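Hi U.,

Before I forget, here's the chain from the pilot set. I'm dumping it here mostly so it's searchable later in email.
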Amino acid sequence: MKKTALSFSILASVLISAQSIKTNIDLVNVKNDKVAVTMEFPKMKSGDIKFHFPKTVPGTYSVDDYGRFIEGIKFFDNKGKELAYTKINDNTYSLKNAQFLTKVTYLVNDSFDEEMDTSKHKAVLSPAGTDIEQGKVYMINTHGFIGYIDNMQDVPYQLVIQKPIDFYGTTALADQDTSEATDTFTLANYAKLTDSPLMYSKPDYITFTAGGMDVVLGVYSPTGKYKAADFKDNLEKMVTAQKKFLGDMNTNKKYAVLLYLAGGDGPQLKGFGALEHHESTSFVLPERMPKEAIDKAITDIVSHEFFHTVNPLKTHSEEIQNFNYADPKMSQHLWMYEGGTEYFANLFQIQEGLIDKNEFLKKINEKITNSKSYDDTMPFTVMSKNVLLDQYKGQYRNVYEKGTLLAMCLDIELRKLSGGEMGYRDMIRKLSQRFGENKPFKDDKLINELVTVTGYPQIKDFYNKYIAGSQPTPYAEYLSQVGVEVTKQKAAQVFWLIKNPNQTGYNEKNNTFIFDENSALSPFSKSVGFKITDQVLALDGKTIDSKDRQAFINYSNTIKEGQNVTLTVLRKNGDKTDKIDLKGKAILDKLTMETLQYKANPTPSEKKLQDQWLTGKK
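Structure:
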């Protein structure tokens, strides 16, 4: 029996190989920070083809044009003859009479090296990007390395990674060969391929089992400051709590966390965060962060990505199921995919005892404060559907602020309607049972489906007013129903370059402050012609002390309304960087601070609903 099974397995492997797109990524013979990729194809079904690299990928909601990192591309027929092609744009190549196409070769540049230069193109967010550092680390988000042919996205891919023998690849994929020099993986289609990141470096990983799921954490720390073992206890505690919170909604048997810590003499990065996949998360943070801060980021951010295994990775609309990498059509429902997921990432912490009720309320308070930096009357469905367009993409980050709050208010609404028997989590569970990974819902019919699974037509009114409509959500009204009150404090006056100071970053190489490109500019910045891609070098001649950056911020807090101010910035100008002084009179933002607190004497119904909300118990 064993011999027969083995023979069948070998035969199946040969058949898959013959019918698959064999793709080789060479991490051994790296030259000039470029990696060679070779793709070999089965017989073409058409003579005219288009070969693409992704314009964007699921989970990023931005135009990244991964084809711009490709050079030296060549197409060959079955006799080794090079075929002519037409380059349509950064991402697409057209070939005529290419029925004998058998191979394409090209070189890949990494995105990390260009992250600080946005003069020609918006930077790729680090966790969705690629890094090539010979002898150190290779961050392989496969969508940045591998292309596809129209109408062949459903053909299996056989991925072969040639690697240094002393390197280990952190991934959720199972290696199918025993060689120390290569790793071989088989993916069902292009979507599965791009859903499977890998990180190669000197081995530093830990494994554990949580809730019946095998977990691997691989860490790259350029200076050796951290080891994977440093984060095991916190990650294990978090994943165990998440599995308990989700129950039967999560069926993962394995999960990989690829933690890349940026620092040392490596590339300068600013777009820190994580990108979700069905069985893994690619996660980028600055190595300079204290361990406690990294642990907190793991709890807040990696938990968010893991919750994506439910929504939208397994419960989603047709736009996600049939994702068009070359010409993406976006869904209306980022409020659920990102906002609802972020709500879960906060809610599970209180319901599973990772934080107390006051910490949870503080997180909600921060969401309300941050949401005020965005347009509260813009319909979320409209913004979501058009998020790739310039006039909407500046509102994208509100999905993590207002989107969370919308899910919270819907949770409270459902609990009130059901007498505490149903909440947002129950609704998502029922939705995931009705649909699934291979059964999408129609984008414009979601609210009807939610009414069906909950049995409460009243939520359609909520949806039409606050999600698809332009009415600001009355957070105070909903929070009052769970025994929480809002108190307003005296308005503060703040001088800074963007509306939300929390979206400020730091460039170690240039010793400058930098900003999230989706941040809203402050009135002063607009008045002096400050650009969101400018790097702040000095304020009234005072530069940033790399060891005491707070001193610079403290000085900015002393600036008075109408005071003459000189802001010195570094601004990209083609291939060079100019040092520019921007002068004007200070304009201070007037901020009204709202604080949430639990009512001292809630009504019995408010206290009951609050307990159900915070514990998840019925």
